[in-house]
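Design a sequence for this backbone.
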């Protein structure tokens, strides 16, 4: 009886220690600060793989979205690491990948856009219906790091290449509510807000280059004004729909949080570049994030509004998904309470962030670099 009891106690102790060990390892994964060398090697490997990978089955001219959602975040992570460390290798990496990306643009490959029936200086995407075309989203995300890099180093070659890519879509803007929206040809819908907002953010940052078209800041601000028309008071915060058309009702379903994390990049860029002086929108985004009922109870909301209240942290099927990671750019509002809340979410939900800051969405890596530049990670 005594031996059996001791055996049981030993087994229970073993399990307890094992659980603590796993929990400790997970916590370390979520909070560990990598060395500069580790970060540089990781970014170099990820970005080279982005260019050279062939496992996706995409044609050479059909990788626009792939490049956009990798490079748009990892490229900026490299720039943020440069700001923190002043290590020129991070700038060299951005220059190298920028030049490699420019060499596989449609105009370099001689590829005609199926929708527009002409060659664009951009990166096409192959859709499921067989059509290959270009998108404002890819143009915005791919050129964002290029614009910022070109300003830091005065690299006119890359700066002008980015401007050429962005300029190709200027004539496609549609006026409404004192601003602009864009139309997605293949899907025959108004481009979702988060898609046009990264394009607007790139216009804003590129507008700081001395040779940029004077129209860039005006269009960037116009995209923001269109969004403003649809922002509504929602409880103790604000919300907006995902892809509102000019005739859409103002009470459409609110945007998912991981998409809203992209949408907020435009007002951040407008303020960073000095195009917009009023920071009221940043106050509203802070209230929206911190006052959301799911955030208040320590969870992660699925939608930015309170029309559909779902806590992602309660959904097992999202385990390992990269989608929750796209909310983390909210930290870049540069509001201490939001930064603290974002860090707590990542650290307190290891199931949704199983690889901490270095897995899932590439925005995780960028936000890590941002928080590190703010000296907020131990």
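Sequence:
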């Amino acid at each position: 009886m005594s031996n059996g009891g001791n055996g049981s106690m030993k087994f229970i102790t073993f399990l307890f220690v094992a659980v603590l060990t796993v929990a400790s390892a997970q916590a370390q994964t979520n909070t560990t600060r990598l060395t500069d060398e580790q970060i540089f090697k990781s970014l170099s490997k990820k970005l080279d793989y982005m260019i050279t990978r062939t496992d996706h089955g995409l044609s050479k001219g059909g990788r626009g979205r792939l490049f956009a959602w990798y490079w748009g975040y990892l490229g900026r992570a490299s720039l943020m690491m440069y700001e923190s460390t002043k290590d020129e290798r991070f700038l060299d990496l951005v220059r190298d990948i920028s030049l490699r990306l420019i060499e596989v643009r449609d105009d370099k490959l001689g590829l005609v856009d199926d929708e527009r029936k002409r060659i664009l200086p951009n990166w096409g995407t192959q859709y499921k219906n067989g059509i290959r075309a270009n998108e404002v989203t890819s143009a915005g995300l791919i050129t964002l790091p290029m614009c910022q890099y070109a300003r830091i180093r005065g690299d006119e070659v890359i700066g002008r290449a980015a401007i050429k890519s962005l300029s190709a879509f200027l004539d496609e803007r549609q006026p409404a509510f004192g601003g602009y929206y864009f139309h997605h040809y293949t899907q025959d819908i108004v481009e979702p807000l988060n898609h046009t907002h990264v394009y607007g953010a790139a216009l804003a940052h590129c507008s700081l280059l001395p040779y940029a078209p004077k129209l860039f800041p005006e269009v960037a601000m116009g995209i923001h004004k269109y969004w403003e028309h649809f922002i509504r008071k929602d409880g103790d915060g604000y919300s907006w729909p995902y892809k509102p058309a000019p005739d859409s009702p103002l009470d459409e379903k609110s945007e998912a949080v991981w998409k809203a994390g992209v949408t907020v990049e435009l007002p951040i860029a407008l303020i960073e570049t000095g195009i917009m002086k009023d920071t009221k929108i940043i106050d509203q985004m802070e209230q929206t994030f911190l006052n959301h009922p799911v955030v208040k109870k320590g969870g992660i909301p699925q939608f930015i509004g309170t029309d559909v209240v779902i806590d992602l942290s309660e959904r097992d099927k999202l385990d390992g998904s990269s989608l929750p990671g796209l909310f983390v750019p909210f930290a870049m509002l540069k509001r201490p309470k939001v930064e603290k809340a974002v860090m707590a979410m990542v650290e307190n939900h290891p199931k949704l962030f199983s690889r901490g800051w270095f897995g899932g969405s590439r925005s995780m890596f960028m936000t890590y670099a941002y928080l590190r530049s703010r000296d907020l990670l131990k």
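Confidence is low (pLDDT under 50) at residues 1-31.
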